[in-house]
Amino acid sequence: MQETLLHVSNVYKTYGKSAVPSLDGIDFTVEKGEIVGIFGPNGAGKTTLISILCSILNPTLGSVKYYLDGEKTPREIRSKLGFVPQDFSFFPELTAKQNLSYFGSLYNLQKAELEQKIDDLLQKVGLFHVKNQKVSTFSGGMKRRLNLIISLLHNPSILFLDEPTVGVDVQSKIAIMNLLQELNHQGTTIIYTSHHLKEAEEFCNQIVLIDHGKIIASETLTNLLKKHAVNNLEELILKLTGTLLRD
Amino acid sequence: MRKLKASIWKELLLVLHDKVGLLLMYLMPLLLVFIITIVQNSAFQIVNENKLTVLISNQDRGSLGDSLVKALVHSGSFEIRKNDHLSESAVKRITIDEDAMLGIYIPSNFSERLASNADNISKLMLEQMGVIEKAPKVTPEKQEIAIYFDPIVQENFRISVINGIQAITNGIENEEMVGKLFQEMGYDSIPQNIRQAIINRETKLKIANASLNEVAELIPNSSQHNVPAWSIFAMFFMVISLGGNIVKERLSGSFLRLQTIPRGFALTLISKFLVYLFVALSQLLLLFLMGIYIFPHIGLPQLAMPNAFLPFLVVTLLSAVSAISYAVLVGTYAKTQEQANGFGAISIIIFAAIGGIWVPNFVMPDYMQAIGNISPLKWCLEGYYTLFLKNGAWSELIGTITFLFLFTVICQLLIFIKLRIQNYI
């Protein structure tokens, strides 16, 4: 029996006086424990959608409802939400441990619990041995892994990832994807965007395809491939969105 | 509380890692206060304590030229280098070579003309008093003493030197005139009791500083002027560190992450505010301690702290809060770190200039003084001058306190509007 976690209803978003909406009537539902991939060309509205789901932006119209201990708005469930931005959102001047301690404390984690959690996560992504090094000395892959685990300190029920594996080596990618799989097995719902379509095919069980601010497909990957008679996600995206450059 | 402590600790670490910011916030003001106080103190000493070197060529055939030179020596303000072989053009030419600040050329007919004029005036006075029937009609001749300044001597120095020399020549002229009067009345010279009365006639000037507090007087000097002024400048210059820091965090994406953490953003702003309040107060403490304990050891006047401690504390806190609010405002509205640093630095320099940090407000034209009223630095400075120079207290600080409070409120309001539009709070 599937249980609804998130319902997005008729969401519109326009920026300033722009006549063209970034999101144009988005409707979809996410069930607990799903891994949802949001795909589309550059400028399609993926980051705007994730920003609204995370309470960073407010929709111009429409509603976003979470069903965690009752019906909640994105703002009301922020303590159960994890967000991994595409940019490195930490302080390079500080060490990995100082960064993790700071963000963990903002989630009100107690000292002993936080320290244990920091050590566990650093071990899992292979950064334990450099925990006292300044992050500015880290490689791109190490920074990407740190960027991820900062969002996991408070055991979020739902995790949003905006391009979590962009610009990393294959080893870092495997470490990140393994950790995400593990989290999902433990019950964390994951919503993510990526341009690594092969990785997404293996990872996601639901696909939401956006173009020009509208959902043009939303189903399981298997159903979508069958329905549109294509072999993989890349072919599906090209078939539904065309080859025209968007930016 | 634990969240706030962690947030404050993070801000402190970031400040400590910002080496350039630390240099700008602590070392730059130390150097500024140190250098400017020394320079102003030296300028003060040149005018008031040191002797100005004067090259004099006295060509006077009479005795009054010598009287003038003696009076200049007696004044104690000049170091006289006499060379009577120099022509006027030579004095003009070699004043600079001789390393003198000015050259004086006394013409050969100085005594003759001065005596002639004194004679004429005394006769006119006697005619007026009916002692003689008719004074001969003579056009007064103007005696001319040529003064040549080294071009580097500034206008205010020139004026004070000219006034000094003019006072001496006036004294000589007066004495000569009184002497002629007595001669006309049949005396050989001015009677001793009259001469003594003339010498004692000088109006004594009681010179003291105006003070709002009769109990204790603070002595205005370069330290009392510069330490508070440049401390304010240093506080407001934190816009480079704090404004830049805010833009950097916003652009790096950490603000985005904070938006998804309950109260994360508000805590960050509060902790930034508290840490930079500590920075501002520590800047002031450092500069004041330098004024109190180091200045006297290097020949500068010791900084005397105001007696009104509570008003001093309030003005200090309000100044610091205004500086922080302005820095956060710049950081909130700037689109890039370069924009925050550039605009922040230039705006503070302009505020300092129109606010009287470099040149006192009262020497500015009226419209500039009016414009200066928009500068928070002007009001901070006015508050500190009321405390450090005029020994004032609450009633004299109403303007400062009101302006700084309103300035802070307006900055905070603009910050709130921007952050609300951007959905940060």
TrEMBL record, chain A:
Alphabetized UniProt keyword annotations: ATP-binding, Nucleotide-binding
One GO MF term: ATP hydrolysis activity
Start and end residues of each ABC transporter domain: 6-237
Keyword ATP-binding: yes
Pfam families named among the record's database cross-references: ABC_tran
Alphabetized SMART domains for the sequence: AAA (SM00382)
InterPro entries xref list: AAA+_ATPase, ABC_transporter-like_ATP-bd, ABC_transporter-like_CS, P-loop_NTPase
Gene3D superfamilies documented for this protein: P-loop containing nucleotide triphosphate hydrolases
Cited PROSITE patterns: ABC_TRANSPORTER_1, ABC_TRANSPORTER_2
Stated name of the protein: ABC transporter ATP-binding protein
Organism whose genome encodes this protein: Fluviicola chungangensis
From TrEMBL, chain B:
One GO term describing the cellular component: plasma membrane
Location of the ABC-2 type transporter transmembrane domain: 21-416
Location within or outside the cell: Cell membrane
Main location class: membrane
Molecular-function annotations in GO: ABC-type transporter activity
Cross-referenced InterPro entries: ABC-2_transporter_component, ABC2_TM
Transmembrane segments: 20-39, 227-247, 273-296, 308-329, 341-359, 397-417
Keyword Transmembrane assigned: yes
Membrane topology classification: Multi-pass membrane protein
Organism superkingdom: Bacteria
Protein name: ABC transporter permease
